[in-house]
Design goal:
The protein has 821 residues and is an alpha+beta fold. It contains 30 helices and 17 strands. Strands 2, 3, 4, 5 and 6 form a 5-stranded antiparallel sheet that branches. A hairpin with a 2-residue loop joins strand 11 and strand 12. Helix 6 packs parallel to helix 8 (220-249) and helix 7 runs antiparallel to helix 8. The longest helix has 35 residues, at 576-610.
């Protein structure tokens, strides 16, 4: 029954492969339509530049940002540092900037916070939000005014990080494409293979990019690195299929070779993709939802690559078959027997060294300083805005903005909170309704009718009527039944009520009264929406602390405790520092989840692949060791590491580079039975090197290109970690893993469910000696004694010890007996 099911499976794959190859023109049209559609859909994809948008909804920062977006207006602002300038020149420039349309206010004085040495720092607030047209126009005018000076600008206004990233990734993609072409030319068997590869890569990339709009939007990180990572991760699939085709082509015409190769490659590639997809699934389970964003897009990219290889590439191989045959060349990849011989000689030396390095890697990776804010990531290629941010912070101190949201209504509590937090040594400035001045009074000061009449410039009788109407509206009847002159209302509330009644036409002001009220209303309309919403009040503090440090997090806790004395748990802190604190909290859970799930997924897949419990342990140990060693480098180099780089790269490194270990292990398990253990190691590395060289070099180079070219600190950090991690994995699987296989042979055999390895992954052909039973498809020259049944066409010299029947019902009917000369 088992044999019957296996035969059915093989027959199905052959039928499927034959259908795909024979209907290749129809698939040309399908993919042409899909590419045109996806190419036109790329522009529909929205790119989210805000990493905080992917925070879990229940985090403090996400709740606070949502409230501020709903209830408050946040005006654009910027800091402009000028060097080698006198105070008088800087003052003139500050006065000039204040007259620019779109500028709301300018802060500059002779204190050390604005002028020190020969450097000046001018703080500007715009009339609109950071992406408002008036703010953008004002920013352009300011840049024009400051053009003759040595200027550093730190502001989100007019900063298009998406365009900057796309420009950089375009350069990276071009360089990566050149590297890919060179690697493929070096490792290919025919020069015309390369155009086939490039078409397949391009189509798969367009399909993935064009379908991203299904998700509504993608993060700027995913949008930037997805194409390069897709090529690096999925390149194996096209290589496996093409190598299969070239093997089959040795003995078959193009169509039959294409069909045979595809029938084998579908199962092989599908199995190979499982470990990579498992790593992406682990990413999707992160609490920090940017993991889901990246995992979903990359999983879709792998599927797009597989479908392109399965459905389009067979037709392309047929289309280019004549050119492929004409441009065949000798193998350019050298043998690396010396490495295999070294592995055998050092098999008792390198594994203990590896274990020591692995233990050291565990320790050092735990000592790594993880960071959660882009402004503190150590990078060798910072963007201009990061250079400006660091220069301003070094010269004038940190300007860390922290917003505190409390329920609206109790101005007395707000005033006490402002006073207490302002007294903290790290706080340099505090702003809220309770300390905002207007006409000699604070906005939350309680005024009687006469005081309000003098301030607003209205008649006392009108002020009394206004106060009585306010009391009636708020059900405070003391203003009606008692002396209204003793009734007190906070200035901000009384003036808002005055403006509401005026707008409703309840009363009308004229002359100077109207002008004064209009001037006050204009000021309030600018400032009030920044500090007061429908249900919440916002207190804004400027602290001289880094965005991310133990001192900063301690300050946040102290601010929370002060506000909690008055509002309990109804207190929300918002800012870059709270974002870093929230990301730090989720990192611990996500780190453990990704590490455990990725290793578990891979272990299960390897268990079913090799039918052994010991082999998965050796393979996962090798790759996990490379991960620990990779992330010990930041501690050794005394640099920090962006937390997302660790999560993403550790997942990719385990899920994708484990394939290199599978290649080595498959070859070794096949060869050791016929060549002996030592010779099997040497031959295994010789046979595996082209595959690992092609895939590994492309992923390594792609990672380093992203790391060294991108000026975005988060993406650069991710690229460097990926390139370094892939290179580490390659070195270990080419040196330590063969030695572990040699030394762990007893463990492998004792834990084997069966000694037969059913799945042959990335087998690229060669010479195999057979002494036993064989069942399946064989393509190539056969010379030996065979006793059994052959189903199919045979073109060979056959000597048979019994007559060959001529009955069509006999399975051997199609065999023709020929005698050798």
């Amino acid at each position: 029954m088992f044999m019957s099911e296996e035969r059915k499976s093989e027959d199905f794959m052959m039928r499927l492969a034959r259908f795909i190859v024979d209907k290749r023109k129809a698939f040309y049209l399908v993919f042409l339509a899909a590419v045109l559609f996806c190419a036109s859909s790329v522009g529909k994809v929205r790119v989210n530049d805000d990493i905080t948008a992917y925070l879990p909804a229940d985090t403090e920062t996400r709740r606070g940002l949502t409230l501020m977006e709903d209830e408050f207006t946040t005006l654009g602002a910027g800091q402009f540092m000028l060097t080698n300038i006198t105070f008088d020149e800087a003052q003139k420039l500050a006065d000039q900037i204040e007259t620019i349309d779109g500028v709301s206010s300018v802060e500059f004085d002779d204190t050390e916070k604005h002028y020190t040495g020969s450097s000046a720092m001018i703080a500007v607030t715009f009339d609109g939000e950071e992406d408002a047209p008036e703010s953008l126009r004002a920013m352009n005018s300011i840049k024009a005014a400051l053009a003759p000076y040595d200027t550093y600008i730190s502001s989100p206004v007019g900063l298009d990080t998406s365009a900057q990233l796309q420009s950089e990734m375009g350069i990276i993609l071009v360089v990566a494409a050149i590297v890919i072409v060179l690697v493929l030319l070096f490792t290919s068997k025919s020069y015309m293979e390369v155009p086939v590869y490039l078409i397949v890569f391009a189509v798969a990339a367009v399909l993935n990019m064009g379908t991203n709009y299904w998700f509504g939007e993608v993060s700027f990180i995913t949008n930037s690195v997805a194409i390069v990572l897709q090529l690096a991760l999925a390149i194996d699939y096209a290589i496996i299929f093409c190598h299969r085709y070239m093997e089959e082509r040795e003995t078959k015409p193009a169509r039959e070779a294409d069909i045979a190769a595809l029938s084998k490659a579908i199962v092989e590639i599908s199995s190979s993709s499982l470990t990579t997809i498992s790593g992406m699934i682990a990413l999707m389970l992160m609490k920090f939802r940017i993991g889901f964003d990246m995992g979903a897009v990359m999983s879709k990219g792998i599927i797009c690559s597989m479908l392109t290889v399965f459905l389009l590439m067979p037709g392309l191989l047929m289309l280019f078959s004549k050119g492929i045959e004409r441009t065949r060349h000798s193998n350019l990849v050298p043998k690396i027997s010396f490495i295999g011989k070294m592995d055998v000689k050092l098999r008792y030396i390198l594994p203990p060294i590896f274990l020591v390095l692995m233990v050291g890697g565990i320790y050092l990776s735990n000592q790594c300083e993880y960071c959660f804010s882009e402004n503190v990531i150590d990078t060798n290629n910072p963007p201009e805005q990061r250079i400006a941010f660091d220069r301003i912070s070094d010269t004038f101190g940190n300007q860390n903005l922290i917003a505190l949201l409390v329920p609206r209504g109790d101005y007395e509590k707000e005033g006490k909170i402002l006073t207490e937090i302002s007294s903290l040594p790290q706080i340099e400035r505090a702003q809220g309704l309770a300390n905002t001045e207007a006409e000699g009074h604070m906005l939350t000061d309680k005024l009687k009718p006469r005081q309000f009449a003098e301030l607003a410039g209205v008649d006392i009788e009108l002020a009394r009527l206004l106060y009585q109407a306010y009391g009636l509206d708020h059900e405070e009847y003391g203003a009606i039944f008692q002396n209204p002159d003793d009734y007190e209302i906070p200035l901000v509330d009384s003036f808002q009520f005055l403006c509401e009644q005026k707008d409703k036409g309840v009363f009308k002001l004229e002359g100077e009264q109207e002008d004064k009220v209009n001037d006050l209303q204009e000021e309030l309309d600018t400032g009030l929406p920044q500090l007061q919403g429908d249900n919440w009040s916002r207190l804004v503090f400027t602290a001289d602390v880094p965005e991310e440090s133990p001192e900063t997090f301690a300050l946040l806790e102290e601010m929370r405790s002060i506000a909690a004395q008055y509002y309990g748990d109804d207190v929300i802190l918002v800012g870059n520092s709270t974002n870093a604190q929230d990301l730090s909290s989720s990192f611990m859970d996500d780190n453990l989840k990704i590490s455990v799930l990725t290793a578990l997924f891979v272990m299960v897949i390897l268990l079913f692949t090799f039918k052994s419990a010991g082999l998965p342990i050796l393979l996962v140990l090798t790759i996990q060791g490379s991960i620990w060693i990779n992330f010990s480098f930041p501690a050794i180099m005394d640099t920090n590491l962006f937390f997302l780089s660790y999560l993403v790269v550790s997942s990719i490194q385990m899920g994708a580079t484990i394939d290199y270990a599978i290649v080595i292990t498959n070859r070794y398990m096949e060869l050791k039975e016929e060549l002996g253990h030592h010779e099997a190691v040497i031959e295994t590395l010789n046979q595996s090197f082209p595959t690992i060289l092609t895939s590994g070099s492309i992923m390594t180079v792609s990672g380093f290109l992203i790391g060294f070219i991108s000026t975005n600190p988060a993406i650069s950090s991710l690229g460097l970690a990926l390139g370094r991690g892939t290179l580490t994995s390659i070195v270990l699987v080419m040196t330590v893993l063969p030695q572990l296989l040699l030394l762990g042979d007893t463990l492998i055999e004792r834990t084997a469910i069966t000694l037969n390895i059913d799945r042959k992954q990335r087998f690229s052909g060669g010479i195999m000696h057979v002494d036993g039973h064989i069942r399946g498809h064989v393509s190539g020259f056969v010379d030996g004694e065979i006793r059994g049944l052959i189903r199919g066409d045979v073109n060979a010299m056959v000597e048979s010890k019994r007559p060959i029947p001529k009955d069509p019902a006999d399975p051997a009917f199609h065999l023709e007996e020929e005698k050798s000369e």
